[in-house]
């Protein structure tokens, strides 16, 4: 569908035309307004732990709340320092008392990640998959559900994207062996069986934090080490998870437009770690990362998105 060359504005406009045709085709098959939440399967339950902080609410989290989170709202929990607007306290896990002031330090990150596992263990009987995401990520929840549905959650899975091209070399005893770890910034998913096996090492925040400090590893590295060394669970690598560190992900417009509908996570950061070449469906201050635009291109059947696409198409052809 997206094999055309998008270097010119004319072909760029064709993307919007194709989306509009898709909307029209869908509307012919529908007898009532489409509820996008019906696309999310209930048979493969996924819990979403979103790590954030009060200082990032307006800068990052608000765009997640306007896009993918409403699709899985009842299954999303927020790991944050303080209570946040428009988020249920029942789905908020406060960390300031245990972790201190929000900071991008090893101890604070490990402490907040340890709270992921408190949520995961509490709800282990209700879910098959347990996923961590940061507040600068868009999650294509349909594709995540589709992907995880191909795997058996009763087997030990550790799924994510590597930060480095090579395994981390370790010489320290008692586990002097290299291991792979997944960057939490691209999203990490663990099966129910993996959460069960991790319980002796993660049932309290201090157990996970003490392990980070003892090994001098940040949270994602320590998790990879813990799974590899203690539980013999290897990383299942996927190139469909993406963090804001991947500048190359957005550098090739043609490749992005050809493949974005099949990607699972997208990391965002200005000035160049976001799809700045997408059409601007919203004013820039309302959609600085084009996250809302991306959401509309993935879920063209949403009424608001249909309106935005039609408006953009009309304005572009004036």
TrEMBL record:
<protein>
    <recommendedName>
        <fullName>Fringe-like glycosyltransferase domain-containing protein</fullName>
    </recommendedName>
</protein>
<keyword id="KW-1133">Transmembrane helix</keyword>
<feature type="transmembrane region" description="Helical">
    <location>
        <begin position="12"/>
        <end position="28"/>
    </location>
</feature>
<keyword id="KW-0328">Glycosyltransferase</keyword>
<feature type="domain" description="Fringe-like glycosyltransferase">
    <location>
        <begin position="42"/>
        <end position="272"/>
    </location>
</feature>
<keyword id="KW-0472">Membrane</keyword>
<dbReference type="Pfam" id="PF02434">
    <property type="entry name" value="Fringe"/>
</dbReference>
<dbReference type="GO" id="GO:0016757">
    <property type="term" value="F:glycosyltransferase activity"/>
</dbReference>
<keyword id="KW-0735">Signal-anchor</keyword>
<dbReference type="GO" id="GO:0016020">
    <property type="term" value="C:membrane"/>
</dbReference>
<comment type="similarity">
    <text>Belongs to the glycosyltransferase 31 family.</text>
</comment>
<dbReference type="InterPro" id="IPR003378">
    <property type="entry name" value="Fringe-like_glycosylTrfase"/>
</dbReference>
<keyword id="KW-0812">Transmembrane</keyword>
<dbReference type="GO" id="GO:0012505">
    <property type="term" value="C:endomembrane system"/>
</dbReference>
<keyword id="KW-0808">Transferase</keyword>
């Amino acid at each position: 569908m997206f094999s055309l060359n998008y270097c010119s504005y004319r072909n760029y406009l064709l993307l919007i035309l194709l989306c509009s045709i898709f909307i029209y085709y869908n509307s012919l098959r529908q007898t009532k307004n489409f509820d996008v939440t019906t696309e999310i399967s209930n048979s493969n339950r996924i819990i979403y732990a979103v790590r954030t902080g009060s200082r990032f609410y307006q800068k990052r989290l608000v765009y997640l709340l306007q896009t993918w989170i409403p699709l899985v709202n009842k299954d999303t929990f927020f790991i944050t320092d303080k209570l946040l607007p428009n988020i249920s306290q029942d789905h908020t896990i406060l960390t300031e008392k245990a972790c201190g002031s929000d900071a991008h330090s090893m101890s604070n990150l490990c402490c907040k990640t340890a709270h992921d596992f408190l949520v995961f263990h509490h709800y282990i009987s209700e879910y098959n998959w347990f996923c961590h995401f940061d507040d600068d990520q868009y999650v294509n929840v349909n594709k995540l559900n589709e992907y995880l549905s191909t795997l058996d959650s009763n087997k030990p899975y550790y799924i994510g994207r590597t930060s480095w091209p090579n395994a981390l070399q370790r010489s320290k005893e008692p586990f002097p062996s290299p291991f792979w770890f997944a960057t939490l910034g691209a999203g990490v998913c663990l099966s129910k069986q993996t959460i069960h096996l991790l319980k002796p090492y993660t049932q309290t925040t201090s157990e996970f934090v003490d392990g980070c400090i003892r090994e001098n590893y940040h949270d994602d590295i320590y998790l990879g080490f813990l799974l590899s060394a203690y539980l013999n669970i290897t990383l299942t690598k996927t190139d469909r998870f993406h963090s804001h560190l991947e500048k190359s992900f957005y550098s090739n417009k043609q490749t992005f437009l050809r493949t974005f509908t099949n990607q699972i996570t997208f990391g965002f950061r200005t000035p160049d770690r976001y799809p700045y070449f997408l059409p601007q469906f919203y004013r820039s201050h309302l959609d600085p990362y084009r996250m809302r635009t991306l959401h509309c291109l993935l879920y063209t059947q949403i009424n608001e998105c249909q309106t935005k696409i039609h408006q953009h198409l009309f304005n572009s052809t004036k």
